[in-house]
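Two proteins follow. First one:
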Amino acid sequence: MSPEADSSDSPRQPLLSADEFVRLCDEQLPFARLIGMQVERFTWESVALRAIFNTDFLRPGGTVSGPVMMTLADAAMFGAVLARKGPLALAVTTNLSIDFLRKPAPTDVVATAQLLKLGKRLAVGDILIHSAQDDALVARATATYSLPNS
């Protein structure tokens, strides 16, 4: 029986470990290294990733740039998909939409992704991005990933 078909009340374990995810990101997502990405949480239910603040991330006005938050959101969604599907080659973003809600402080940002739907060909998820300084919600994204034929 597949892990998705398991109806027990016990918590499900991700099909990939956090360490395996980091290794896969090193191979497939070189931009993750550029934002100093660290895994905060890697579970079946959600994946939380942190971008370690760097002054290179700042835009005029002292805010963390949108591309950093978009990169983090995309990586978190990738992690959420792999936690449920295991190491997939060619799982790719087909859509990423982000709303910037408030100016983040010049500090780390944390993105938490949860899948809303996981099908055979597509995965849809919701990503919340918080400022690590005060836990303020600074952005919200939705993403769709195309999944390879299994």
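Second one, unrelated to the first:
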Amino acid sequence: MLPIGLLAKQSGVKIPTIRYYESIGLLPEPVRSDGNRRLYPPDAVRRLRFIRHARELGFEIDAIRELSRLAEHPAEPCCEADRLARERLAVIEDKIARLAAQREELVRMIGDCTHGQVAECGVIDVLDDHAKCLHKEH
């Protein structure tokens, strides 16, 4: 059994985050020592690494909960895991498209700036009138 400090070190997850994951049910409640210290089984390291990696990829807590459940049942079909990953990918692709539009708009705004007075500034002009933007949304 691992105390919380050692679990944090081995998993790369901070102690407050481990406690949070416990409180929301992503990590099972640990047993307690006679001194009331949390003690975790060795497989908690793998589970926390799984959760940390999923968070790094931007999965929401509910999706991680479902992915964790699926990971505990390796004989089940993986269509649900695939669906969750595809949903996350769609969110990322949408974000990339919006960031690309923002980048394009900013590059154009900067290029249109005369570096003279604010009255002639391309940046201020476009910010003042959204109709002058290249994209309706960004």
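SUMMARY FIELD: The longest strand covers residues 38-40. The chain has a mean pLDDT of 92.
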